């Protein structure tokens, strides 16, 4: 199946800052794909390159088979995008904005937009400047999806929204993925991502350090709790990708992706190793291990979602 988003070795620097240091990413169709990362990891920069608002210094980025640099206008017609701070003309009413925006899209836009406003219970005749943050976010979402895009890109869509509005947003995303459309969602909200995402990519310091279907990621990642007889005991590291390791006296804690069971047995039989326990980490613990630990960027050929 063709990837909806395909990014290869994308780099972007600003003065004194390497925001993206070689991003590789493939997003398959029909999924809710979450891009997670701490502040400054590079999520917005990547999204701005995908949507044609920024040019990469090097590398290739494609959406729906089109080049993000050369075909950005066509891409913007085909996708929906809600930024972390949607810009709406605040002297207009949602009704007026819908009428104005409809002129850029094929027939049918306005009817679908008005139907979405009713569904979101937005007061369509009130000026944007008199609306709450949640109401504005709903207008931005209705504008972004009324042309029925194949790909919807949302940058921190629920920050600052109340739980009810957040739930409406999230449910509408899952509904979209269920109809074969794709949603790329950037977020810090691990709990809500865990409820809606099919795929997870974790970004750190301008690179993707982990990308996998959420369910597989949870099944393939384990916490190894090791008790030693003495803090100075040396032991063989189990095989697998060590995402993070911490030490506290005689205790060691590892977060390991694709842990090899044979090497765990070797660890258990090592003299000075008193006890080895295995736990399943939460997504939040995996995220923290990836963003605070010493996990390295994944190789390009492994960062594929197709
Ligand atoms: N226009 C710019 N000029 C200079 N530096 C920038 C610019 N835009 C982004 N950066 C820097 O690039 C890095 C990545 O920023 P980016 O906004 O992509 O991160 P993010 O993951 O979206 O963060 P957040 O979750 O806080 O929104 C940061 O160090 C940021 O300061």
TrEMBL record:
Q: Which SMART domains match?
A: AAA
Keyword annotations? ATP-binding, Nucleotide-binding
Q: What residue stretch is flagged as signal peptide?
A: none
Recorded GO MF terms: ATP binding; ATP hydrolysis activity
- One Pfam annotation reads ABC_tran
Q: PROSITE patterns from the entry?
A: ABC_TRANSPORTER_1, ABC_TRANSPORTER_2
Keyword Chaperone present in the record's keywords: the answer is no
Domain ABC transporter, by residue range, is 5-230
Q: Which PANTHER family match?
A: ABC TRANSPORTER ATP-BINDING PROTEIN YTRB, SKFA PEPTIDE EXPORT ATP-BINDING PROTEIN SKFE
Protein name, entry field: ABC transporter ATP-binding protein YtrB
């Amino acid at each position: 199946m063709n990837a909806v988003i395909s990014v290869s070795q994308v780099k972007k620097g600003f003065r004194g800052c390497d925001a993206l240091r070689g991003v590789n990413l493939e997003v398959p169709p029909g999924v809710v794909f979450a891009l997670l990362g701490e502040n400054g990891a590079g999520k917005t920069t990547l999204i701005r390159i995908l949507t044609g608002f920024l040019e990469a210094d090097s590398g290739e980025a494609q959406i729906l088979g089109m080049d993000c640099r050369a075909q950005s206008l066509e891409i913007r017609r085909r996708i929906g995008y809600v930024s972390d701070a949607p810009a709406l003309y605040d002297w207009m009413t949602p009704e007026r904005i819908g009428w104005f925006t409809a002129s850029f899209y094929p027939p049918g836009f306005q009817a679908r937009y008005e139907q979405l406003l009713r569904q979101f219970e937005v007061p369509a005749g009130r000026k944007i400047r008199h609306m709450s943050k949640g109401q504005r976010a709903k207008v931005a979402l209705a504008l972004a999806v009324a042309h029925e895009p194949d790909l919807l890109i949302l940058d921190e869509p629920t920050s600052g929204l109340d739980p009810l509005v957040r739930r409406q947003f999230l449910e509408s995303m899952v509904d979209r993925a269920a109809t074969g459309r794709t949603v790329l969602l950037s977020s810090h909200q691990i709990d809500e991502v865990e409820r809606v995402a099919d795929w997870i990519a974790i970004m750190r310091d301008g690179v993707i350090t982990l990308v996998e279907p959420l369910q597989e990621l949870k099944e393939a990642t384990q916490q190894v709790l090791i008790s030693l007889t003495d803090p100075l005991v040396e032991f063989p590291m189990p095989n697998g990708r060590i995402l993070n390791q911490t030490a506290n006296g005689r205790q060691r804690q590892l977060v390991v992706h694709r842990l090899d069971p044979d090497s765990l047995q070797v660890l258990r039989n090592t003299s000075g190793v008193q006890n080895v326990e295995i736990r399943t980490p939460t997504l939040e613990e995996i995220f923290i291990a990836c963003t605070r630990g010493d996990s390295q960027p994944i190789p390009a050929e492994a960062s594929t979602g197709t």
